[in-house]
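Supplementary Methods S3. Input chains for the assembly prediction are listed below.
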Amino acid sequence: MDGAPVGRRVFLGLLGVGAAGILWGSNVQRWLERQVGPYLAKDGTGLSGLLPIGRFRIYSVTGSMPHRGHDEYRLQVAGLVDRPLALSYGDLRTMPPAGLSRDFQCVTGWRVFDVKWKGVRLADVLDRAGVQPSAKALRFRSFDGTYTESLTLKQARRDDVLVAYELEGENLSDAHGGPVRLYVAPMYGYKSIKWLERIEVTDEVVPGYWENRGYDVDAWVGRSNNRDDSTT
Amino acid sequence: MIPRFDRVERVAHWTTAALFGVLMLTGAVLYAGPFSAMFGRRELFRQVHVYAGILLPVPVLVALGGRWGSQLRRDVARINRWTRDDARWFRRRNRVRPGRLDTGKFNAGQKLNATFFAGAVVVMLATGLMLRWPSPFSNDLRTGATFVHDWFAFGIWVAVLGHIFFAIRDPIALGGMTRGGVTPYWARTERPAWYRELTGNTTERSATR
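Predicted structure tokens for the full assembly:
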């Protein structure tokens, strides 16, 4: 057959591009997030949200996007506490705010660098309810009706565990788990339960949704789930 | 009718196309926020995506590997070789009716399309396996694999939509892949070099030049 084997060259070239992308893609990605990310954040159309730059992947385990308005929202704190609470969105907003800027690492591999969160420390919420001495752990429930999570009391009292209501300076959207979600900075994203509705103080750890499906209960970034990501 | 694609080629094409469709739709659900939110049920979509991805190269490999694949193997060899008329094809403004090009069984666009899909499937499969079973790989390699998988997916969407667009614009060529044959007129005017090869007519060349 006559003609140059251009097809083979194009094919091998594509494999080369793919291999180079695997080897150096993380650098390119970081560069894109720094250079292009800020512009995309200002794009009002939302179309740029489809580009794989500086973006969260929105995961939910149920069939629809949960929604709850600020006025109707309540955060229940119950179980082994002295004063069961039903905190309104306004209640949370009047508590002393806490901010964090940390990377967000998903157990499926993606990472968003330097994400700015604001909320109240979970420890402050617990103190307000008065945790009883027999308590060992927390069980969280989402108003999506299905998702649950857990933390030990010791983990929950860390300074970098927030009941969050702001992301990148804006109110948490429905997609990101608004109006209020948990943010567990040192752990994989699945611990940061979205659409937080209820915190139950318990005397033992009850594994959450993904933990019943094989994920580690103690989900430290880089030290669990057979992964060695650098810490957030 | 002039036979263009035999049964093996057509079955391989359409099973691969079906798998591509499943992968592109489940991939969109897994990837894009609005779709993820619309459908949820992440675990189900993830499993379908992973299994369809692993199956993706199977139809073509089976078709290529067996006794039955001689015509497909010959067509792969054709797609590999680029002539001077292929280079000219890219410079024409109307690529569907470029005229006066001594095109063989495949024009340059078809060659590029097929070659791109071959490379993209290998790259997507490799990076997909890295994303599904990440434990042997460092952080940076995983991020790199995600990066490659994402951007190649964009390229595949563009290529597939373009492929379908051009197929619909040329129903006779499309018939070659659905029913297996094309009209002699189409073969003689659109793929003159191939037509001469089939009919053994060597005087045609000067006429179409």
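Chain A has a mean pLDDT of 87. The radius of gyration of chain A is 21 Å.
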